[in-house]
Specification:
Radius of gyration of chain A: 13 Å
Strand content of chain A: 35-45%
Helix content of chain B: under 10%
Radius of gyration of chain B: 13 Å
Number of strands of chain B: 11
Distance between the termini of chain B: 40 Å
Number of helices of chain A: 0
Structural class of chain B: mainly beta
Strand content of chain B: over 45%
Shape of chain A: globular
Helix content of chain A: under 10%
Order of helices and strands of chain B: EEEEEEEEEEE
Distance between the termini of chain A: 35 Å
Number of helices of chain B: 0
Largest sheet of chain A: 6 strands, mixed
Order of helices and strands of chain A: EEEEEEEEE
Shape of chain B: globular
Oligomer: heterodimer
Number of strands of chain A: 9
Chain lengths: ~110, ~120
């Protein structure tokens, strides 16, 4: 099943802003909301944002999401060492009738 | 608080079967769609299956359709993944997850290794 496309890695400096992208198709991101998850090594994923920019309780305002057409973005401001993690996007695909994930972006905070 | 606890992972030979369980607590279980998501060692997340609140709607990843069966028991606050005809490529950490707009709570995962 075709997934979403994310860059494998992004590196940014401490206190800088990182924008992670996720590209899909008309049958997923084009018509459905995007979710973003963060995963630290050895831990389960944690939901950061869903249906484009709804943040679960306890998620910092430094994380904000947006979507334009078939591309979703996650912007992380004021990067902190603890932001170093893998980030995944996800969406429901109406054609596949399946949830699809991106391959993940490894964010390095320099 | 919301808790999801997976169990049943093991080392099995190709072609054999395994049943995973996920015990839910801290929320009204039958109000939520539930999912299995897996992660092969060193790889990304891969959605496996979902089951609706009452079990009436079920969807699977193409590569597991016909081999895996998802089910739930709302009276026990549990759901399951019956995995038959296991293949080496099914080797992964299997997570159960709750859907609330997206996957908002996850268990710690249970490891399935398919190897001869």
């Amino acid at each position: 099943q075709a997934g979403l496309t994310q860059p494998p890695s992004v590196s940014k400096g401490l206190r800088q802003t990182a924008t992670l992208t996720c590209t899909g198709t008309n049958s997923n991101l084009g018509t459905q909301g995007a979710a973003w998850l963060q995963q630290h090594q050895g831990h389960p994923p944690k939901l950061l944002s869903y249906t484009n920019n709804n943040r679960p309780s306890g998620i910092s305002e430094r994380f904000s999401a947006s979507k334009s057409g078939n591309t979703a973005s996650l912007t992380i401001t004021g990067l902190q060492p603890e932001d170093e993690a893998d980030y995944y996007c996800s969406a429901w695909d109406t054609s596949l009738r399946a949830w699809v994930f991106g391959g993940g972006t490894k964010l390095t905070v320099l | 608080q919301v808790q999801l606890v997976e169990s049943g992972g093991s080392v099995v030979q190709p072609g054999r079967s395994l049943r995973l369980s996920c015990a839910a607590s801290g929320f009204i279980f039958n109000n939520y769609i539930m999912h299995w998501v897996r992660q092969a060692p060193g790889k990304g997340l891969e959605w496996v299956a979902l089951i609706w609140y009452d079990g009436t709607i079920i969807h699977y990843l193409d590569s597991v359709e016909g081999r895996f069966t998802i089910s739930r028991d709302n009276s026990q606050n549990k759901f399951y993944l019956q995995m038959n005809s296991l293949r080496a490529e099914d080797t992964a950490l299997y997570y159960c997850a709750r859907e609330n707009g997206a996957f908002d709570f996850w268990g710690q995962g249970t490891m399935v290794t398919v190897s001869s």
